[in-house]
Amino acid sequence: MARVTALTRAASAYPTGFWVLWWGTLLNRLGEFVVPLLGFYLTAHAHLGVTQVSVILAMLGLGRFVSEGLSGPLTDRRGPAFTMILALSGGAVMILALSFAQGFWWTAAGVLGFSLLSALYKPAASTAVADLTQGPQRTRAYNLLYWAINVGAATAPVLGGWLAGRSLRLLFWLDAATMAAYALLLTLLYPRAARPAQHAAARARQLLPRDTLLWQFCLASLLFGLTYQSYKLLAVVFAQQGFSAAQYGQVLAVNGALVVLLGLPLGHLIARSGHPRWQALGAALLGVGFLGHALAHTLWAHMLAVAVWTVGEIIAYGISKTIISELGPPEQRGTYIGLVGSMAGLATLLAPLLGGALLQRLGAGGMWVVIAGLAAGAALLLLALEGRVQGRLTRRRSSAPA
């Protein structure tokens, strides 16, 4: 009974709208089958070449780069619920269309269309969390959502692989069904409280804010993202070093397991102070972890490297969302979140290209050293911005309504 009471108390600490987001996110991520298995589908089922598959996968990053930057202003004008429902319902339609796409050009167009629509979701969801919470609760809320995302991310590829043995097209239909179900959940249950007098003010502001601190923060986010997204080169390096696909899966599973185990306790620890320095520490650990791959030649050494950069990822994630949600004025919250999110999309597009070029010129060791240097640059820039960021956060929090 005491345990039930504690769970009820913990659940009631967050508004209903947040739990609609949480359960919808978990449902959607558990059904995210297409993107993790897209490369396999294009190679084994669509019979496309390596270059064609690479270009199509790059469309995911291109779509995210464009769409997240546009999602923020749309969210500020129409509200998070409208943008999330548009992203989920539009993404569901595009996934269904993609299941019927034939040939390189139609498939590339379908993937780009899917990415352009579905990527509208992330800035809107982050804005929704910020609208629903405040203070240390906001950081904890972001980490709860991050935990749900990673539970789904760890489960969906395994379940999707099993379902693919029955029907590859079934993956597309089930993925679309979970997106549509989440959109319906938002339509029926998400509160439509007005964002006070913000829409008119937001329209009067520029699409790209003239805020030097924002753009410096975007640069740090890009450097961080280029490092993190370079984990995709691990598969190539593992093949070169003679490891099997199963061993690669085991090493990457360390990331998901640690996020599930450590995401909540670390997130709650960070929420107690909410200091920007946590993000610089996360970037530094990310760099140390990727540098570890340069020195690793055994499976256990690579696992240790993944463990280190995963801790950095966990530390940086929740606090970065909180910082950017409070960096700008409330009426431009979505715009600020979307611009930083677009840096992650740009990193998704550029990291495999940069990593591939470095791997060819410098070899695996040199590539990892350069990539670790990008994370070090992010950490140093975040430290240099720390005083200004903390000062602005203090002013925003002191002027926020109780």
From TrEMBL:
Keywords, A to Z?
Answer: Cell membrane, Membrane, Transmembrane, Transmembrane helix, Transport
Q: Entry's Gene3D superfamilies? A: MFS general substrate transporter like domains (1.20.1250.20)
Q: Which organism is it from?
A: Deinococcus actinosclerus
List residues traversing the bilayer.
7-26, 38-60, 81-98, 104-123, 144-164, 170-191, 212-231, 251-271, 278-296, 302-324, 336-359, 365-385
Sorted alphabetically, which Pfam families does this protein's record hold? MFS_1
Residue intervals of the Major facilitator superfamily (MFS) profile domain: 17-390
Q: Give the membrane topology.
A: Multi-pass membrane protein
> Per its record, how is this protein called by name?
MFS transporter
Cell compartment(s), UniProt: Cell membrane
